[in-house]
Design brief:
CATH superfamily of the largest domain: FAD/NAD(P)-binding domain
Structural class: alpha+beta
Oligomer: single chain
Distance between the termini: 31 Å
Number of strands: 28
Radius of gyration: 23 Å
Largest sheet: 8 strands, mixed
Helix content: 10-25%
Number of domains: 3
Number of helices: 11
Strand content: 25-35%
């Protein structure tokens, strides 16, 4: 079997990339070593920028229907409610308006449900996921990559994308190291459970106890009957006196009863459970030859702040249009070098944010929404104005309306878009959708060529030079 792109791992990263490639007509297949999609809620928060990505991929309506906003935190002590806790800083003026239509706070959807939605969209587009295929090795040459599996025939692909998690088999086979640190040495239990005796209007927080037992947090998972239970354990001399890290129903019942006013039998079911030690790590490289790393295979985050899953989906969004341009649009292969150039610095920055949130040094707010991330320093970015306006080339292209047109509706799809704002110039001869707005506060005035992933590639006071830019990148069209 031969394909253009083999994606290893059917998590949010792999599925989002597969959806993007499928709509571009790229022959791609996802292989997953498990026999089905991941069953738990390890990630649950979708940041506003990722909601915009899902808008473009055609799944945002299903995501909105499947989830809901985050509840207000409720602090408990000795069986009594003692205080509310706001998990997120309020939006600044201008955030969450027309320019960023998916709000200024994350939208909660359990990871398993998000994956079901992406899988359904991929199936709708004719994409494929093959379960029960464990990668055991790969060999690449100048024309492609041959991937071997524990069972079944090898597969040949022009490119491979490793989206197989923090313990990536592909990354290890390539010999790419990861540099990082332990964010917190204390292990954490996380489980999807059914509970009676707690309302679903609050995220219930039980602070650490004086005897050394760590915190307990129980959050209702929007769109489901489940709660996500998270419990921190202490190690070493501060180890919990009588509680081991037991992922069974009985073990989780003991934790809940010991750290809250709940009775053991109030935990009626454990639907999924796992444990981890928060760490932060960044792959030394995001590419080796024809193989790319994306998602947790490239960067591992503390879950604090909800950055890991979102950064991972946006890896896929960045790589997808570039693979499509090379494989179907005739773009030079050198375009693929900009994936690591653009995404590795972003991943490094977001690792710092995740770690800062975990340690209480950074608040959940503007820094975690990911709307301000961009690629100003990328070799694909050209800012030609002597004095740029409020929006710079390389920045995320905001939404907005004018002349009966919504910008995100125009941007949606696997194409570049030419946007003019202010006095109407003569449109240059580019084979892309063109839209004009009389005014837009976020853009100021000028001409903006918006990339397929919703970032401004080129900006100018007039259209002079944009045709040359398009010809130079050889990806526009």
């Amino acid at each position: 079997m031969k394909v253009d792109v083999l994606i290893v791992g059917a998590g949010p990263t792999g599925l989002a990339l597969a959806v993007d490639l499928a709509r571009r007509g790229v022959d791609a297949v996802v292989v997953e070593r498990a026999e089905g999609l991941f069953p738990g809620s390890r990630g649950k928060g979708i940041q506003p920028r990722t909601m915009e990505v899902f808008d473009d991929l055609g799944v945002v309506d299903a995501i909105r229907e499947a989830g809901g906003p985050y509840p207000v935190g409720m602090i408990w002590r000795d069986g009594e409610r003692v205080a509310e806790h706001r998990m997120f800083d309020p939006a600044e003026e201008g955030e969450g308006g027309e320019e960023s239509p998916y709000g200024a706070e994350p939208w909660m959807v359990p990871q398993w449900r998000m994956q079901e939605i992406l899988f359904a969209r991929l199936t709708e587009l004719g994409g494929r996921v093959v379960f029960g295929r464990e990668v055991v090795g790969l060999r690449q040459d100048e024309d492609g990559v041959t991937v071997a599996f524990a069972a079944g025939a090898p597969l040949r692909a022009r490119y491979v994308v490793a989206a197989d998690g923090g313990r990536s088999t592909v990354r290890r086979a390539l010999g790419i190291g990861m540099t990082g640190e332990t964010v917190d040495p204390n292990p954490v239990l996380v489980a999807d459970v059914r509970i009676t005796g707690l309302d679903r209007d609050n995220w219930h927080v039980f602070p650490p106890r004086a005897d050394g037992a760590g915190f307990l947090a129980i959050c209702p998972l929007a769109g489901t009957e489940d709660f996500q239970l998270v419990a921190q354990f202490a190690e070493g001399k501060h180890r919990d006196r009588d509680l081991d890290l037991d992922l069974s129903l009985d073990g989780i019942r003991k934790v809940a009863a010991a750290r809250s006013h709940l009775a053991p039998e109030d935990v009626t079911e454990v639907r999924w459970s796992s444990e981890f030690r928060p760490r932060a790590a960044l792959a030394d490289s995001f590419r080796r030859g024809r193989v790319f790393l994306a998602g947790d295979a490239a960067h591992v985050h503390s879950p604090a702040g909800g950055q890991g899953l979102n950064t991972s989906v946006q890896d896929a969004y960045n790589l997808g249009w570039k693979l499509g341009a090379v494989l179907r649009g005739g773009a030079p292969e050198g375009l693929l070098a900009t994936y690591e150039e653009e995404r590795r610095p972003v991943a490094a920055r977001m690792l710092g944010v995740s770690t800062g949130v975990h340690r209480g040094e950074i608040r959940r707010g503007e820094a975690t929404r990911q709307l301000s991330l961009g690629y100003r320093d990328s070799s694909l970015t050209a800012e030609t104005r002597p004095t740029p306006g409020p929006l710079h080339a390389g920045d995320r292209a905001p939404d907005g309306t004018g002349n009966g047109v919504r910008l995100f509706d125009t941007f949606r799809g696997p194409h570049w878009t030419l946007l003019t704002v202010g006095p109407t110039p003569t449109p240059p001869p580019l084979p892309v959708p063109t839209v004009h707005l009389p005014s837009h506060k976020a853009y100021g005035t000028g001409v903006f060529l918006v990339r397929p992933d919703g970032y401004v590639g080129w900006a100018g006071d007039t259209a002079e030079g944009v045709v040359e830019y398009a010809a130079g990148t050889d990806t526009v069209g």
